[in-house]
Amino acid sequence: MKQFEIEFHMINDEVLTQVVEAESRYAALETIYQSFRHATDGFVQFEDEWIIFLDHVVYVKAFEIVE
Question: What are phi and psi for residue 53, nearest 5 degrees?
Answer without folding.
Answer: -85, 120
